[in-house]
Automatic annotation (TrEMBL):
The keyword Lipoprotein applies. This is HMA domain-containing protein. The lineage of its organism: Eukaryota, Viridiplantae, Streptophyta, Embryophyta, Tracheophyta. It holds the Pfam family HMA. Residues 64-95 are annotated as: Disordered. Belongs to the HIPP family. Residues 78-90 have a biased composition (Basic and acidic residues). The keyword DNA-binding does not apply. Signal peptide: none annotated. It comes from Jatropha curcas (Barbados nut).
Length: 119
């Protein structure tokens, strides 16, 4: 079963990061490894046992705390059936009176007169 293991690990330098990545990447069943230096987290996705991940990190000389263990988040949905809606190339505004700038509703085939007759 694929799961996501998030550990809180002190990743203060590049040497520490390489050491952790080397230790964890050699495990069987690791699909993806992410290290967030700002948050100090190590995220491992795959079928590897979380206990083995923790043991490997600790053998690398780093203290590891479990933040969460569970299923990975679902990938974002992409509907192939729905094509992207096209935005109109130009915006059409209804005709307006040239003198008062009010919108004039005009029946098809009818030309409005130049004088305003909106009530």
């Amino acid at each position: 079963m694929v799961q996501r293991t998030v550990l809180k690990v002190d990743v203060s330098c590049q040497k520490c990061k390489k050491k952790i990545l080397k230790a964890v990447s050699s495990l069987q069943g690791v699909d993806k490894i992410e290290v967030d230096e700002a948050k100090g987290t190590l995220t491992v996705t795959g079928t590897a046992d979380p206990y083995d991940i923790i043991v490997r990190v600790r053998k690398a000389g780093k203290h590891a705390e479990v933040v969460s263990i569970g299923p990975p988040p679902p990938p974002p949905k992409q509907d192939a059936k729905k094509p992207e809606q096209k935005k109109p190339d130009s915006v059409h505004y209804p005709p307006s009176c040239t003198q008062c700038q009010r919108i004039v509703v005009v029946p098809m085939g009818y030309e409005p007169s130049p004088s305003c007759s909106i009530m």
